[in-house]
Amino acid sequence: HGAREGLVFQDARYTFAQVAAEIDRAAKGLMVQGVEAGDHVALWLNNSADWIFISFALAKFGAVQVPINTRFRTADLEYVVRQSDSTVLITHDQCGPIDYLEMVRQVFALPGQGRTVEDANFPEMRQVIVLGREKYPGTVSWAEIKQNGETIGNGDLAARAAAVDPDNPFLIMYTSGTTGFPKGAMHSHKLI
Q1: CB 54 within 8 A of CB 88
Q2: pLDDT tens digits, one per residue of 136-146
Q3: Which phi and psi (to 5°) does residue 127 adopt?
Q4: End-to-end alpha carbon distance in the chain
Q5: What is the C-alpha separation between 42 and 160, in angstroms, rounded?
Q6: Is residue 167 within 8 Å of residue 189, measured between CB atoms?
Q7: Which residues contact 35 (CB under 8 A, 6 or more apart)?
Q8: Exposed end of the chain (fewer CB within 10 Å): N or C?
């Protein structure tokens, strides 16, 4: 069904073939950025086509995604990222009136120079990737990551994908925490 419509988001329309190409592009970019199989990657994203591409890209090469509720604020973000041992956070700069990047800055000590997060309170966290209109100090731009992915060959991605075991973790989904702190429920690739 490659030529059939596979994803519609606002005014953007993608065929199944285009969705697959965007997933591969995202996966290659994340690989260039150093994301490895087994890394926990927190996704603090509102609805977007990129959310779909990133989610499937992480699954494709074996990284574990940790979706974070977009209604969460700094205390919740801090808890989930710390408790999940996330090494990467992918988020927006701003969405409507919500300044996600400012909340990130309140939680993490982003570097003044360079892009590697070195915060003693979050020893696992290495980088913050931002979907936004600009480049921000201490973060990596999603647009740059997608462009850098062009340096990875299809064979490298195929090898990483072939190494993924369906029994490996694919997702850590946090409960709402209505009766206490949210709990991270782990799911394998067999969930899909």
Answers
A1: no
A2: 999 999 999 99
A3: -160, 155
A4: 19
A5: 20
A6: yes
A7: 41, 58, 61, 63, 87, 88
A8: N
pLDDT tens-place string over residues 3-40: 999 999 999 999 999 999 999 999 999 999 999 999 99
The helix/strand/coil state of 155 is helix
Structure token pair of residue 2: 């490659």
Joined tokens for residue 178: 């209505």
Q: Give dist(CA 117, CA 133) in Å, integer.
A: 21
What distance in Å separates the CA atoms of residue 17 and residue 31, rounded to the nearest whole number? 21
From 192, 186, 181, 191, select the one nearest 64 (Cα to Cα).
186
Q: How far apart are CA 104 and CA 97, in angstroms?
A: 15
Q: What is the DSSP letter of 131?
A: E
Single-letter amino acid code for the residue at 179: T
Q: What is the distance between the alpha carbons of residues 191 and 50, in angstroms, rounded to a whole number?
A: 21
